[in-house]
Amino acid sequence: MARQSVLTGIEHLRQKGVEAVVLGCTELPLAVPEPEVDGIPIIDPSLALARA
Fold first, then answer.
1. Which residues contact residue 23 at a Cβ distance below 8 angstroms, ignoring those fewer than 6 apart?
2. pTM here?
């Protein structure tokens, strides 16, 4: 259910024309671990920070 809520939000943003989505809460990447959804890059800020 949580995953579907996040995916619904991503779809809403896609319709608004976003180019990428930052999952800015540490729990969100657990629901959406894939690097993209429907062609939209999904950014896990914790992973980006760890890589930096």
1. 6, 29, 32, 42, 43, 44, 45
2. 0.84
